[in-house]
Design a protein that fits this description.
With about 625 residues, the protein is of the alpha+beta class. The chain is about 50% helix and about 10% strand. The chain is built from 22 helices and 14 strands. Strands 4-3-2-1-5 form a 5-stranded antiparallel sheet, with no helix packed on it. A 3-stranded antiparallel sheet has the order 6-8-7. About 40% of the residues are buried. It binds NADPH dihydro-nicotinamide-adenine-dinucleotide phosphate.
Length: about 625
Amino acid sequence: MPTVRFQSGEMVMGRWPGSNLYYEVKVLRFSPKSQLYTVIYKDGTELELKDQDIKSATGFRTRSRSRSRSRSPARRRSRSRSPARITRRSSSRTAAVAAAAAITESTPNSRRDAKLKDVLENPTKPVENNSNNKHENKEENDTANKVTEPEAKVEAEPEMSQGRYNLRRRKDDGDAKAVEVKQLQLEEEEAKPTTVPAATSTTPLDFGGRIGAYFWLLFLPAWVLFLLLQVTLVDPSLANFPPPLPPLETLFDGQALGIVLLWTLFQALLYILPVGKLSEGMPLRTGERLKYRTNGFFAIVVSAVAVAAAVYQGVDLTYIHSNFLQLAVASFLGSFLLSVYLYVRSRYVPPDQLALGGNSGNVVYDFFKGHELNPRIKNFDLKFFCEMRPGLIGWCVINFAMALAEMQEQHLEAPSHAMILVNLFQLLYVVDGLWNEEAILTTMDLMHDGFGFMLAFGDLVWVPFTYSLQAYYLVTHPNPLGLPALIAIVAIKLLGFYIFRMSNSQKNAFRRNPSDPKLAHLKTIPTATGKSLLVSGWWGVVRHPNYLGDLIMALAWSLPCGFSHLLPWYYMIYFIILLVHRNSRDMSECRRKYGSAWDEYCQTVRYRIIPGIY
Ligand code: NDP
């Protein structure tokens, strides 16, 4: 029988996840099933903590500002060091120590050492917040902002020498209602080492952690290669042994590389043109909102005109079909070099610009997962551009090229019905994404994920070269469709599209303006962060209605290819795995952000993606 050490209502010290910092928290309840305590912090954040992350309040020696005089043994001990003796400099240095302590918790080694030195040598310099944890960031900022306040009555020098106190201040960011701030200056029972400890990750590692990152780095390119070799076979069974690798020198082609480069530059040019709306992204941890040129629809229209003009001028687009592997290899090289650049630059950007994940301190994991949240060259947002432009629009061009190749290969005067459906369905998906480009600003990729190999490879290789496999397959594997089948497939696509579009638009509209009168009829659950969760409408049906719509559409993309082979169903299978995993990643992230409000949402909306099933 487990012992319950702390009772509901008891004030204890709770460790803030991913750090060595303890804050005063109130125990709300204990769950014998999960063996977790639900606690509430002073700013209203509710979290579940393990027993070992909670300590009795009496186990701490509290040093405090004058306000908490009665509870400050340190103060009693040092009566002679009156507040009057505390100079601006010393309070600055105290803050510097606090900042240095924070740096030791979250910065990768090399930069951390430099920052530590910098902070200690320049205590009056504004302190860079180094935590990737929103909660801590706010507090570090508060602390840093406090450094020159005359009333900061803290003992600097002993702290400098011991190097183990943190000056922390908390305040509410929820409803803009100022909460009585209680600054805790804590010393843990055990003396911490004075040397700089290793950097710790502020979020759990995804994708199998460090070992997983090695695996995915090797597996993903190998898998794309396998698929592309399979699709050229007469009998492209996924169960087939991989076909022999072509000679390496045939995989690399200078012309293919040139085409990929030109295409990317062309898209970059369209992106920077001062055409279209400048949309604001979601607020970052710093409170800043980045601006994005959302002219994707313009870009695809101009691209379509350019491609049509090229074909009219005699450019043979079937080159894409006959050099597919070389184009994929060239794109892979581009995505790899881009990822190296992204990783290197992420080592030099301020910590508040890093993603919460991707800061494990392990080079391979961080390279794979992505370290910097919004890498930009001036106003050119690399992540946004790669997510929405060269790969997505390139996918449509590839599909179109496959339609031409099919006509050539099968001596047709027009593409087959199956090919037309695949082309139109996927074109609709891309055009819709670009028409509603602003909506991507509220998605996980843009808001939470760092930009590294995972997204760069996904955007530039995976999407254009594996999402077009159905069209590629149809070039040499005709699948005649009768009218009833055609109508049924179109109906499935439209149903999926409707669910997908409506649910994404509803969430996007709500996140952009929660008091939008058009959404007034929807029920919501407030959370401690100030944001609310939709609990009716599309988001009351399942927790990810947009995934449901997307999956139904995926079904409609595979059906035109028939059932002779599994390969054209590969997208559907992969997509189920992707969305199930993505859903669980998002659930953990939302649970971390919203605590018990998220639990309440999950209790109300019981199914994740498919009503009544999953
Ligand atoms: P979502 O657009 O569903 O974004 C998830 C976020 O929405 C959560 O982190 C949370 O963020 C917010 N949210 C969750 N529940 C609620 C709620 N009840 N009320 C209000 N906000 C809520 O996820 P994705 O970014 O994964 O997907 C976006 C679209 O892209 C989907 O349609 C998906 O199918 C599609 N997609 C397509 C892929 C493809 O390869 N074809 C790949 C991946 C995605 P917060 O609270 O912070 O706002």
